[in-house]
């Protein structure tokens, strides 16, 4: 989430507005905790000092608070990569063009993955990895236009938002009807069922979602950012920004956004589980040609 006066104004109207919202980040975390190997669960619980089922969900939004704390500002640009593409005509992410000297979400995933591997049980790098694998799956975290949508005003059910926070929070709140960890847990269960259930809507496709290797974490993060950025052209700004500026989005725009939000949450959760499995155990059952773990 980028900082603009419009964002702050909308945050005042809707005080719970955070990047991918707390519900979005917690949903990704719950999906990941449901798919991770037992060794990875144990490792994360020990690292975070939390033996409860909420061990990943409760820390998933920590990075959004930390960046406003004293000494946390350096981590602000790590939450996105500002792709300087031309939506809706062409979408793409280019590391050399789009990742600034201050860093970006791709360099941050590389950095905190590396720290987690070289300094096992270091809690902050784990919290950042959990958060950034969520953020990178939100299309407007991989887009420069209008400060990642922060300067485009829209309405959802009559409430004023900016486009970035609509995708982070408003659509998820409208879809789930809640704003709590319990909301996220219920939402994650329905998405997990699509991945794990026999005949689940994502059962077949999800076997191909994770094709990444720790040997090239830059390529992994760039692939996730590029795939996610495609939705800026197809769903976020399909007719260009002027078509949605100041408009109510609760009709066909929202209907088309929901499947994207759900798919991106599910992909983020599975990829986070597999990424942490690789870091902790060196292997994952969630990659290509591997069976997805049965529901526990
Ligand atoms: C890597 O993370 C450390 C610890 O937060 C930070 O000090 C450093 O600036 C980061 N480096 C890069 C290249 O992001
Ligand atoms: C929003 O950002 C775009 C480019 O990123 C710019 O062309 C436009 O003028 C900005 N709009 C406002 C209202 O600041
Ligand atoms: C969309 O929002 C408007 C304005 O609040 C409201 O009148 C309308 O009933 C909403 N439509 C849907 C489909 O929710
Ligand atoms: Zn964030």
Automatic annotation (TrEMBL):
Q: Where is the signal peptide?
A: 1-19
Biological process GO terms, please?
Answer: DNA catabolic process
Alphabetized, the UniProt keywords read: Disulfide bond, Endonuclease, Glycoprotein, Hydrolase, Metal-binding, Nuclease, Signal
Instruction: Identify one Pfam family in the record.
Output: S1-P1_nuclease
Q: Which domain of life is it from?
A: Eukaryota
Molecular function GO labels: endonuclease activity; hydrolase activity, acting on ester bonds; metal ion binding; nucleic acid binding
Family as reported in the entry's similarity comment: Belongs to the nuclease type I family.
Q: Can you say what this protein is called?
A: Nuclease S1
What is the organism of origin for this protein? Podospora appendiculata
Q: What is the lineage of its organism?
A: Eukaryota, Fungi, Dikarya, Ascomycota, Pezizomycotina
